[in-house]
Each structure stands twice: as structure tokens, then as C-alpha cells.
Design a protein that fits this description.
The structure holds two protein chains of two kinds.
Chain A (H helix, E strand, L loop, with lengths): L1 H19 L4 H20 L4 H31 L1 H13 L2
Helix pairs in contact in A: 1-3, 1-4, 2-3
Chain B lengths: L6 H27 L5 H28 L4 H28 L5 H5 L4 H16 L7 H15 L1
Helix pairs in contact in B: 1-2, 1-5, 2-3
The chains are: A mainly alpha, B mainly alpha.
């Protein structure tokens, strides 16, 4: 029974980490589209390059944070959470 | 030099580096208050901070490169770069989690600082120098009013 509980904990953490990493896909697509449009804008008005670069850096950093949240949660789920959950389980069954 | 860093990228990176350096102090203070501070927290913060600054610099360089390309090339460059940078940050976090000389929480927090820095700076600049361009809704309203006056 204990093995089953440990397996569920570890499996749940692994599945959760995988699901959290889905968040890493979106920012890449979004940033790609944004930068493509910025290229178009600079093509039309080359004198705006400095402003567009500055705005793009701001936008990309903000967009990328979503993926970073997912990454941090995935890493914590793999490396930190199982130990905590197993400790809680062991304490609850008195081992 | 062929690949010179754009002054905008340099300026923004310097600003974010300052923010990251300042943000490390409250992290240390919180760990001190919780009585959980040790050298691993400091090393973790330094590792996370250096990664955050390096990542921001890479974002700037990627944009600088992408803006000189065609739309399709720019899309591919950005996607590739984003994947690579995410992988790099993941490896750094794994390193911080596996090695006992780093604290994972202290390493993870500075990675999120550039977003805060950029948002706060944008808000401060908007307050300091209100843009002469009005939002689209305002323009529409004014145009409507003008049309009404003409009628």
C-alpha cells in the first residue's frame, strides 16, 4: 500500500511537471508573431527602430515570464515537491 | 566589430542588472528573518541573478538580430532562441536543485525580477512622460464629436 502511495505521489509530480511545461510553448509562438510584425513596422518606418526595439524587449520579457513560471513550477515539482509529499505521508502513517 | 550590441539593448540590460542586484537584498533579508540564511542562499541568489541578466541580454541580442531579418526568418529565430533560453534556465534551476551549495528558492526568485523591472519602469516612464498619442478610444470619441459638430 505504501509503495502504491509513493508511486501515485511521484507519478502525480511527474505528470504535473509535464503539464506545467506546456506553458513554455505559447510564449515562443507569441514572441515570434510579435517580432515578425515589428520587422514589418521597421520596414515601413526605419526611423522608429530604437523605439520598436525597446518596446519589443519589454514585450518579449513580459511574454516570456509565463513560460518561466511553468518552468519553475515543473522544476519544483520534480526536485522539491516529492520529498515534501513523502515526508508528509511518512509522518501521517507514523514512520 | 561585426556584431556590436545595440545601445538600446545595452541600456535596458544595465537597467535590469541594477534591478536584479537590488532585488537580491530583500531575498537575503527574508531568509535572515526566517532564520534560514546560509551561504547557499547567497550563492543561489547570485546564480539566479546572473542567469536572469544573461537571459535578458540574450533577449535583447535576439531581438536586435531578428529585427534585421525578414518576417519568416525573424519568427524562426525567436522561436529557436526562446526554446534555447528556456532550456538554459531549466538547466540552471536543475543545477540549483541538485547541488547542495545552492538554494533553489533563492535561485528561482531573481529569474522573475526582469519582468517586474520592465513593468515598473514602463509605468514610471508613462507617468513621467505622458505620451502625446492618445488611446484609440479617445481618438474615436474625438472624431465622433467633430463629426457631430460638423453635422
Amino acid at each position: 500500500m505504501l509503495e502504491l502511495a509513493l508511486g501515485i505521489i511521484l507519478g502525480g509530480c511527474a505528470v504535473g511537471a509535464g503539464l506545467a511545461m506546456i506553458a513554455g510553448v505559447g510564449p515562443g509562438i507569441g514572441e515570434g508573431n510579435a517580432v515578425a510584425k515589428a520587422c514589418e513596422a521597421i520596414g515601413r518606418q526605419p526611423e522608429c527602430k530604437g523605439d520598436v526595439t525597446s518596446t519589443m524587449i519589454t514585450g518579449c520579457v513580459i511574454a516570456e515570464t509565463t513560460g518561466l513560471y511553468g518552468l519553475v513550477i515543473a522544476i519544483l515539482l520534480i526536485f522539491v515537491a516529492p520529498r515534501q509529499f513523502v515526508n508528509i505521508l511518512m509522518e501521517s502513517i507514523g514512520k | 566589430m561585426k556584431n556590436r550590441i545595440d545601445p538600446t539593448v545595452r541600456r535596458e540590460t544595465g537597467h535590469v542588472a541594477l534591478w536584479v542586484a537590488v532585488s537580491i537584498l530583500p531575498v537575503q533579508a527574508v531568509f535572515l528573518l526566517l532564520r534560514q540564511w546560509d551561504y547557499a542562499v547567497l550563492l543561489g541568489s547570485l546564480l539566479g541573478g546572473a542567469t536572469a541578466i544573461f537571459n535578458f541580454l540574450l533577449v535583447g541580442l535576439m531581438i536586435q538580430k531578428a529585427l534585421a531579418q525578414t518576417e519568416k526568418q525573424a519568427k524562426n529565430t525567436v522561436r529557436l532562441s526562446q526554446g534555447g533560453r528556456l532550456l538554459l534556465q531549466g538547466m540552471i534551476l536543475v543545477l540549483a536543485a541538485v547541488l547542495p551549495c545552492f538554494n533553489i528558492w533563492a535561485a528561482a526568485i531573481p529569474l522573475l525580477v526582469p519582468r517586474v523591472a520592465v513593468s515598473v519602469r514602463a509605468k514610471l516612464e508613462a507617468k513621467r512622460n505622458p505620451s502625446p498619442d492618445r488611446p484609440a478610444i479617445g481618438w474615436e470619441d474625438e472624431e465622433d464629436e467633430e463629426e457631430d459638430d460638423e453635422d
